[in-house]
């Protein structure tokens, strides 16, 4: 059974930090690119950060560059999102995503349950 179980998140003041974790099971984690998405109230779900495997190459949305860091531990089947210098605009539900495209172009996606991050004073 495929599972992506998220932890972390919560309420933080502007300028603060949080770390999100996403523990995977039921599939070959090291074969999947891992992504973090954010869905702000009333808006679409947007990609925030992505990390490939096995190279671990990371990419970020312009809005979080220099503040967020995505990392993965293939031995623990876990991906992390370290969020620093948080702003009210970072508020939203954060989703962990596992994505794989096979050699024939077929795509596979798994999603975590989502976790609320609220940045407010």
Brief descriptors of the model:
single chain, 121 residues, mainly beta, 7-stranded mixed sheet, 4-stranded antiparallel sheet, 11 strands, 0% helix, 54% strand, globular
Q: How do the helices and strands line up, and which of them pair or pack?
A:
Layout: E1 3-7, E2 10-12, E3 18-25, E4 33-39, E5 45-51, E6 58-60, E7 68-73, E8 78-83, E9 92-101, E10 107-111, E11 115-119
Parallel strand pairs: 2-11
Antiparallel strand pairs: 1-3, 3-8, 4-5, 4-9, 5-6, 7-8, 9-10, 9-11
Describe the structure.
The chain is an all-beta fold and 121 residues long. It is built from no helices and eleven strands. It has strands at residues 3-7, 10-12, 18-25, 33-39, 45-51, 58-60, 68-73, 78-83, 92-101, 107-111, 115-119. Strands 2, 4, 5, 6, 9, 10 and 11 form a seven-stranded mixed β-sheet that branches. Strand 7 and strand 8 form a beta hairpin. The protein is globular, with a radius of gyration of 14 Å. The mean pLDDT is 96.
């Amino acid at each position: 059974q495929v599972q992506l179980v998220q932890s972390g998140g919560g309420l933080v003041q502007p300028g603060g930090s949080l770390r999100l974790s996403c523990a995977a099971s039921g599939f070959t984690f090291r074969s999947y690119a891992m992504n973090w998405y954010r869905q702000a109230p009333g808006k679409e779900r947007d990609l925030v950060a992505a990390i490939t495997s096995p190279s671990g190459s990371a990419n970020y949305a312009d809005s979080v560059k220099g503040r967020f860091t995505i990392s993965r531990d293939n031995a623990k089947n876990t991906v992390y999102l370290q969020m620093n210098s948080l702003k009210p605009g970072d508020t939203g539900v954060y989703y962990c995503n596992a994505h794989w495209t096979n050699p024939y172009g077929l795509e596979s996606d798994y999603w975590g349950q989502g976790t609320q991050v609220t940045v407010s004073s």
